[in-house]
Design a protein that fits this description.
65 residues, alpha+beta, elongated
């Protein structure tokens, strides 16, 4: 099965191993909202493209409360 980048509870993760990808914690000054969205998407996709799964783990459909 080919791995995919999937969204789980507002986080993006690998569909095979559950590794979470780029969710910025800092402020991106001087950019419009659209530029910020595009930047975050590009960084997340680059990190996912370079990712190699170490072990497969089940991906929960929702995070526990």
């Amino acid at each position: 099965m080919e791995r995919e980048l999937i969204e789980i509870c507002h986080e993006w993760a690998c569909s095979q191993c559950g590794c979470v990808f780029y969710n910025p914690s800092g402020i991106l000054d001087g950019l419009t909202l659209n530029e910020i969205i595009q930047h975050v998407k590009r960084m997340r996709e680059q990190a996912f493209a370079q990712h190699v799964c170490s072990t497969a783990v089940p991906i929960p459909s929702e995070k526990p409360l």
